[in-house]
Design goal:
Helices cover 29% and strands 33% of the residues. The chain starts with a helix and ends with a strand. The protein folds into two domains: 92 residues, no CATH class; 102 residues, Gcn5-related N-acetyltransferase (GNAT) (Aminopeptidase). With 236 residues, the protein is an alpha+beta fold. An eleven-stranded mixed β-sheet has the order 1-2-3-4-11-5-10-9-8-7-6, with helices on both faces.
Amino acid sequence: MTLAERVAGEYVERLRSFGDRAPGRFVAEVAGLTVVSVGVDEPWGLQVMAMVGDVDPAAVDVAVAWCRDQEREPQVVVRERDAGRLPSYRVVDELPALVAAAEGSQDVLDVEASDDVDEFRDVYGSSFEMRPGLAESLVVAADLAVHPHLIGRLDGNAVACAQVRPGVDMAYVNGVGVLPAQRGRGYGAAMLAACRVEAAARGCELVWLNASPTSVGFYEAIGFELVDTHVALAAS
């Protein structure tokens, strides 16, 4: 199995980790595909995962129809190589997938796993300039007990955040954010290093993440390797 294939499989498994700990979240199996709701009213809030193996257009259509029966419009996530198998869908987002070894160190920030959901939500929501209420839906108190929600502090003040979702030997890193007033000081790189250390401590050999196309160079400069691109599709 190639590294790109492993990451594709991990995408499905780690997205499942949103679980049902908050209203509107669920995981369903439809026509052999995993459908995940992360419980938010956003275009990406409901995803049909067609990442593993060959894409079956008929199965995708069944899964999308099932979502519409729930009065929800989903996005379909596939590997970029497979997007052409769904010509009636249009690309709405491109998500480069990058991998790095679960190792490293940093001495820029004091980083710890948070047990304060309100503090984490505040840093998370502010870092990504989220609309009111979105951070509260994406992170609930029960989530902090399931996988590490890291807070980075400088002189005791929270300035950055990140989440690590460990699997068997690979961990998914997401939600790496820095408060707007604190950007450009290396805190994002410090949080990524802390995520790699956290993943190693939990028995993982690799970490992976999805980035924006414009940020690939930043990740490569700190030791990540581009292995694939995932795309989100919507019905035309």
